[in-house]
Design a protein that fits this description.
With about 130 residues, the protein is mainly alpha-helical. Helix content is about 75%, strand content about 5%. It is rod-shaped, with a radius of gyration of 35 Å.
Length: about 130
Amino acid sequence: MVEDVYTTGEAARVLRVTESRVRQMLAAGELEGSRDVNGRWRIPQHAVHARLDRRGPRESRAPSADVSEWVDRIAELERALGRAEARAELTEETHSTTREALEHERERADKLAAELAELRGRGFWARLFGG
């Protein structure tokens, strides 16, 4: 007979705590569960519902779990911000380099246009014999 089980995420939603708190309870033996062949936790539904029935009103709020979740989220956002700032810096550097290259090519084109105009101003024989 296959037993109905929850993942850590499902158990967290039922218990109204974070997944990390569920993993803490599993590690401390406060919640029954076992790992499958892939190393993921499988938690019997009856154990989750028994825990839900046993816990008191103070535990249901789980303020430390909420703080831990926010700390993790802030760290994740700081990493994302760092990556975004690095991309913005690279983009600005790329734009600057491209602008410099464009200006150089414009100067080169102006110089070549001036040389061409000078050559066109001289006669055919002067152009041919360099005179």
